[in-house]
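Encoded backbone
================
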Amino acid sequence: MPEESFSYKSLDTPVEGVIHKDRKSKFIGYAYPIASEADFKHILNTLKEKYADANHICYAWQLGQKDMNYRVQDDGEPRNSAGKPIHGQINSFGITNIAVLVVRYFGGVKLGVGGLISAYKTTARETLLRGNIKEFELSLTYQLSFSYSQMSAVMRNLEIIQAKIIHRELGEGAVLRVVVPKKRAMRLVETMKQLQEVIVEKMSE
C-alpha cells in the first residue's frame, strides 16, 4: 500500500520563454502550475494564438498525487518523440499539478526521432530548472454543524488544530465550513466527535 501523502511539489510561479536550439530548429519552453485540465486548456489556447506560425506545440501535463492524471501530446511529431520525454522530466523533478509545453519552429534540418527526444527532453528540463519548485500542503474541507452551546469549544479547538473557516451560517444552529491541513484532519474529526451535538461531514479534498 503506497504511503499516504500530505503534501506535493509543484512550481510556485510560471516559467516562460526558455529557448533551446538544435540544428537550426528553435524550441521554446513554458511551464505552469495548474489546478485543473481547464487551466491547461486556457494556457494551450493562449500559446496557440501567440505562436500561430509555429510548426508544433507539444506538451505534457499532470494532476493529482496518489492517483495521477496526465496527458501527453506530440502534435504531429513522431509518436512518443515529444510529449513522452516532456512528461519524463515532470516525473524526474517529482512534481505534479503542472503543465510543460514546448513550441517548435522547424529549421530545415530533420533531427530524427532520437534527436527530437533529446531536444524536447532538454527544453523541458531547462525550463523546469528555471522555476522555483515549492512543497504545497494538502488540505481537506469539512462541514461542522452544532448548537450554539458548543460554539466556544468548537472555535477553541479549530484554533488549536489550525483549521481555517471559509464559510459560516448562523441560524437555529451554527454551520461552519473549514479547511484543515490533511495531516491534522483525523485530529479534527476525533476532537469534534468528542463534543456533544457536533456533526462532522467531509466535503472534499
